[in-house]
Amino acid sequence: MMKNVSIRLEKEYMEDAQKIAKLEKVDKSAVIREAIERGMAEVKLEAALDLFSKEKISTSEASEIAGISVGEMMDEIVKRGLRPNITKEDVKDSLKNALKLIK
């Protein structure tokens, strides 16, 4: 369910959103919503990776925070040069997800 929210944006962002909306023939609010959704995904990933790098959470907990699979989180960890800390919980979660896919 969507909720309404009011925000203030710099004039430049509004102009960019309007240009893209016109090019894609969509509503300006759809462009802004997509930008926020993409940005939120990145914010969640960065928060998860930060906590993981400080050894405050496991790989599976990081994947849950970021809203991605354990495998995708492991790829992000390696991509950023962090040391993966794979726990039994991570392996169990991966197996559970794999079993869901083959059922």
Question: Helical stretch count?
Answer: 5
Distance between the termini: 29 Å
Mean pLDDT: 90
Task: State the shape.
Answer: elongated
Question: Would you identify the regions where 5 or more consecutive residues have pLDDT less than 50?
Answer: none
- Write the element-wise H/E pattern from the N-terminal end onward: HHHHH
Largest sheet: none
Radius of gyration: 18 Å
The helicity comes to over 70%
Approximately what portion of the residues adopt beta-strand conformation?
Answer: under 5%
Count of folded domains: 1
What is the number of beta strands?
A: 0
Task: Kindly name the structural category.
Answer: mainly alpha
Task: Kindly describe this structure.
With 103 residues, the protein is mainly α. The chain has five helices and no strands. Helix 1 packs across helix 2 (28-53), helix 2 packs antiparallel against helix 3 and helix 3 (59-66) crosses helix 4. The longest helix is centred in the middle third of the chain and has 26 residues, at 28-53. The protein is elongated and about 50 Å long. The mean pLDDT is 90.
Topology (SSEs and partners):
Layout: H1 11-24, H2 28-53, H3 59-66, H4 70-79, H5 88-102
Helix pairs in contact: 1-2, 2-3, 3-4
Task: Give the tags.
mainly alpha, 5 helices
In a nutshell, what does this entry contain?
By secondary structure, this protein is an all-alpha fold.
